[in-house]
Every structure is written in C-alpha cells, then in structure tokens.
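Our preliminary data section would be incomplete without showing what the modeling component actually yields. Below, a chain of 501 amino acids is followed by its predicted structure, encoded as tokens that our downstream tools consume directly.
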Amino acid sequence: MWRVPRQLCVHFARGSRLSGPWNRPAAFMSTLLINQAQYAWLKELGLREENEGVYNGSWGGRGEVITTYCPANNEPIARVRQASMADYEETVKKAREAWRVWAEVPAPKRGEIVRQIGDALRENIQKLGNLVSLEMGKILVEGVGEVQEYVDICDYAVGLSRMIGGPILPSETCKHVKISDQDPCFIKYVIVEVSWEMPICRWQNTFLFLASMVRSALSRKGAPTTSLISVAVTKIIAKVLEDNQLPGAICSLTCGGADIGTAMAKDERVNLLSFTGSTQVGKQVALMVQERFGNVSLETGQQEPMLAFEDADLSLVVPSALFAAVGTAGQRCTTARRLFLHESIHDEVVNRLKKAYAQIRVGNPWDSNVLYGPLHTKQAVSMFLGAVEQAEKEGGTVVYGGKVMDRPGNYVEPTIVTGLAHNASIAHTETFAPILYVFKFKNEEEVFAWNNEVKQGLSSSIFTKDLGRIFRWLGPKGSDCGIVNVNIPTSGAEIGGAFGM
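Predicted structure:
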C-alpha cells in the first residue's frame, strides 16, 4: 500500500532563486559551505559551487539556478542549475534511444551493472551519508544508513537478475501453451517531491533497479531542496554506465520545478510515473497520468498509529514510541503520529515518555553523538507551530515541547500532545514534524476502529502479549495499513520488500 506526505518543495526552492553567475557578488561566492575547508569532501563527490542539474549522457542545464541550504544553520551549501523544458525534451528523447540499447543487454549482465553501482556506492558511503546530513538534516547514522539501504537494494536487484521469468501455464486449447514474460515499460519516471530523505534512495530506488532488470530506462526528478544529493548520486551511477560503454540516459536526471513535473505527468512517452510527495499533489499527478491512460505509482500521506494494550511490555513501548515519533525529527513517512494507550497504562507511559524526551541529545546532525537534528526547511518549522496551535484550539494539551528551539537552524522541540478526541481534525492531518498525539482507549474494538479512521494507511504497530489479539490485528478486521508491526516501532530500515518489490 502506497501513501505519502508533504507540501511542494519546489516553492521552497524558488525563494532562493539567483540570477546568472556573471553578476553574483564575490562575497556571496565565499560564503558557500562548499568553499570552506571542513566541507572539502563535497568536491570529492564531484560537486562544485554551481552544479549542472541535468544528466542524459552528458551534463547540462539551462533553467533557473537554485541554492541549497544546510537546515542545521540555514547557510548556503552550493547551487544547482535546473532543467529547462528544452532540457526535459532532450532527456526524454535520449532515454528512449538508450532503452533500445539497454533492452538488448541480457538480464545477468544488467545485474552486473547494478552490482557495480552498489560497489561504487559502498566506496562513497561515508561521504554520501555526510551529504545527507548536511543538506537534508538527518543525523549522521541515519544519513549513512540511507546510503546503506541503497546498497542493499542493489544487492537485492542483482539476485533478481538471474531469477526473472514467468510461469508456463497449461492451455485449455490442444497443442497450445501459455507463457508469461516480463516486458519493459520503456521509460519510467520517478518524481520525488519530498526532501526529507535521500531523493533517489529507499523505496523509489526499487524502480531504478527493478526497471533495470526488466530492460526499462529510468529518469528521475529529485526534490529541489536536496538537489546536491541527486547530482552526487547520479555522478556515481553515470560513471559506472560510461565505464561499461552504456548510454548514460539509461538512468537520467532532470532537476526542476513544478513545470518539469507537470510535463512528466502529461507526457505520453513516459510509460510509468512514480510519485512520492503530498497527497494533494499526488492527486493532481494521478489525474494527469490517468487522463492519458498512463501508469502511475503513488506514495502519498500517512498518519501512523501505535497501539499499546494493558498487557504490553512498557520497556518496549516507551523506546519504540520515542524512536518512531522523534527519529529524523518526525520527518519519516513511517513516523508515529498517533499513540493509543489503554487507559490503565496511559499516565505511566506518558510520564516515561516525557522523561525520555528530556534526555534526547540535540545538535548538529553530522555529530555522531547527536540523536535529534533540525527540520528540513523554515516552512516546516512554520507548519509545526501551526499544528501545535491547532491542537490546542481543538482541546489538546502540550505536555512536552511545542516550541522552536533558541539556536541557529530549523530546530523545534519534540512534542507530546494529550487530551484530544480521537477524531480531532489535527490528529488526522499529517504534519511532517515531531508531534505525537496520545489517546486513551478502553477496549480492542474501539481502538481498532480508531486506528483505521484516517484516510492514510502506511504502517502501524501493536504492543501486546495476547496472540489472539495479534492475529485479529493482522486479519481482515484488524489494521488496514499496508505494513503491520508487532511489538516494534512503525519505522525501521529495511529495503522496500513490503512496498511491492
């Protein structure tokens, strides 16, 4: 089941639009983090002060120039020149040409290319992890883990390269046989609107490597606010393709805004479009793709629940809730946002959570001792404050946090809200921030119903020792979420096997 979140990152980036390089003051050039000695490793990834944001076998970009910022201090890192519509047209044409070459490569050899990509990522795992922390704001261990997951997906896809096939089925007609085979979609486009994680990593990379296995070419448009990550990873992939005398447009990149995204959605040459972003924008994308009878895959929206019953092991509940609600500063698609506690354990769990929240180590995300970093943008901070205010208007009580931290960057306090009605509108509205809404429940029937009353349904967790209840939870009258967890958090670091791989 696919669902996801977020407001258009494109508009965030436009606020930082710059004019051409010929009239930029030298003082601004020197303030870029990429020019500071402690960030010299950025250049080892092939990044420069101004980077080309289009790759289709060669690098270019004739669109506007945007600046990406470090959310820990809001200082500019570097700039990326995005795609123009002419760049997009050229990239689609080259992708179709590249597909003709790629489709002739045997699957095991395609798997060998993916293996080389995985090895190249392994060699750069620390630098890429640092870049995720610097540009997105994830703590370092999560940034490195993001890249490791990318590597793991490569390994998974390599194995598939020698297993792809289809069944041979008995025919109802004499002297006939029915054979099923995997055929490519020619061009698959991935749009990542969200900027809270490595734009071409995790589940969307399923499409990159599975597309490779079934002979499809793949193009991507990452989130504008994390354009440097898109460029750095594409450089690694491009080198592998070029070293093997393969067209780079097999895996192309078009950094851009809403105009590029709209063109992708409406383009009949794009056979499958995969979108990760807000539900609002996802609906618009789906309608545009379906209007031309195209194929679309969406991950749009979530409001993850955790349920803890009276027999739950609280030594599991408290750290799990902390990890799921506060990890990545509440900016995961699997972040826990609703915690349902049986009335007999409610007060104790809330008190334990408050003590645990008070011990969270806050700081620069690239510091290995830090467990909690910033929100990705200033706009995310505003959305956090708006959600806290709305929760209080609807009868909620902030028992921990609720404020912006007095320090540089986009830091907010991890927040716990109690006293809301289970069907309060704010509790059903996703806010990409570390806000946990806590509710009391009396019995299994009512809390199962509350779990399912939101429109979103990605991941859910239950904490209990009752095996009968666990199987009822897993059954048709239990959780309606696509991922169901038992005695573990809603979030974790697995490859996207549960996401349709």
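The first helix runs from residue 9 to 14. The CA atoms of residues 1 and 500 lie 8 Å apart. Preliminary results of this kind motivate Aim 1 of the renewal.
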